[in-house]
Amino acid sequence: MYWNSFSDFLAMGGYGLYVWGSFGVTALAMVIEPIAVARNRKATIARLKRQLRAESRSTEA
Predict the structure, then answer these.
(1) From first to last of its 61 residues, what are the pLDDT tens digits of the chain?
(2) H helix intervals, 3-15
(3) Of 5, 32, 39, 61, which sits most exposed with the smallest number of CB within 10 A?
(4) Phi then psi for 27, rounded to 5 degrees?
(5) Could you give the CA distance from residue 22 to residue 31 in angstroms, rounded to a whole number?
(6) Is position 9 within any domain?
(7) Cβ-based burial of 31 (10 A; exposed 0-12, middle 13-18, buried ≥19)
(8) CA quadruple 7, 10, 15, 18: dihedral positive or negative?
(9) Is 43 among the domain residues?
(10) Which parts pass through the membrane (predicted)?
(11) Residue 27 sits in which domain range?
(12) What is the pLDDT at residue 61?
């Protein structure tokens, strides 16, 4: 496809807001998802360690 100018490229034949908005939302999701997974992993590991400590204390008594 050929555009006469960069502004025509950005406008995408009248669908620019949808196209670039979709790219933006996708890029944002691709940035946020690994961060959320890493935080969730740390929280899960910490919870499992606390649970393991609690279980080992209850078996010692």
Answers:
(1) 677 899 988 888 889 999 999 999 999 999 999 999 999 999 999 999 999 999 998 887 6
(2) 6-11
(3) 61
(4) -60, -40
(5) 14
(6) no
(7) exposed
(8) negative
(9) yes
(10) 12-32
(11) 23-61
(12) 61
